[in-house]
Amino acid sequence: MKNFSSSxxxxxLSSFATGVTIITARDLNDDPIGMTASSFxxxxxxxxxxxxxxxxxxxxxxxxxxxxxxxxxxxASDQAEISNKFAIKGEDKFSxxxxxxxxxxxxxxxxxxxxxxxxxHDIHDGGVHWIIVGEVVKLINTSKQGLVFSEGxxxxxxxxxxxxxxxxxxxxxxxxxxxxxxxxLARASRQVETLFHxxxxxxxxxxxxxxxxxSLHGKVSRNLxxxxxxxxxxxxAILNVLKQMSDDNLCILSGxxxxxxxxxxxLGMNRVxxxxxxxRNQENEILKNMNDQERISLxxxxxxxxxxxxx
Length: 311
Fold this sequence. Notes:
The protein folds into 2 domains: 18-153, Roll (Pnp Oxidase, Chain A); 177-308, Arc Repressor Mutant, subunit A, CATH 1.10.10.10. It has 9 helices and 15 strands. It has helices at 6-14, 61-66, 80-87, 181-201, 207-215, 224-231, 235-247, 266-286, 292-308; strands spanning 18-19, 21-26, 32-37, 41-44, 49-55, 69-74, 99-101, 107-109, 114-126, 129-141, 147-150, 153-156, 221-223, 251-254, 261-264. Strands 3-2-6-9-10-5-4 form a 7-stranded antiparallel sheet. A hairpin with a 5-residue loop joins strand 7 and strand 8.
């Protein structure tokens, strides 16, 4: 018998950072299809085999399981928008992006970090998913930094270099980067998030669940695009989270595809009401050296930054 909750299980899985891929092929009508997937993994070096999985309930599952050839695109760090595009049902996924066809007529997306052109090797039953194994027949690898998905949000990779020489007298003074708004915002956000996320973890909630419930507090209704923007969770991940939350009566889902509307519930509000108080207490401690006018001005200026950078 398991000794953990579903949210703890999801939280633990979300701590495993994965690369973001788009799988493309031809559907049963010979039209191009594609979907965002984070389940990509290597299987064997000789022969060169990879795998990925697709939900059996997915509309494109019959097409991918019957495809002879497919391509796995590992997205570059500047392709989060393309990932979102291929994660939303009903989207015209190949519009307004650079792509062509290979010799097997598989759709090929341009400017990715790397690509594995595959021939279907085997398909296995994996519970509610099909596990598709492909033999790599061609690969393309560039020097582009890859896009990463972790804890419900996109990120980028940075190598951690070994500390070969101890430097106790490192100069910790100011540098040019300290004068950049983008650096100060990122550093402040990371430090504040780390502090508050410890509080959320103690409440048996994942970070995406907290952000969703907080955005729906007051039984507010939001569409999928707005909710993704507010929670920093990409559409392919948020739909699974919302389904489980709906089953737990933490939110209500209505509509289909891009027209899904998510509404908060009383139970969902009760689940996070005390966290707002915890957030305010931490906020008061963080801003203790500011007066009320300075706090209001800070929030106003941050809202202006968000407004002026909203694409």
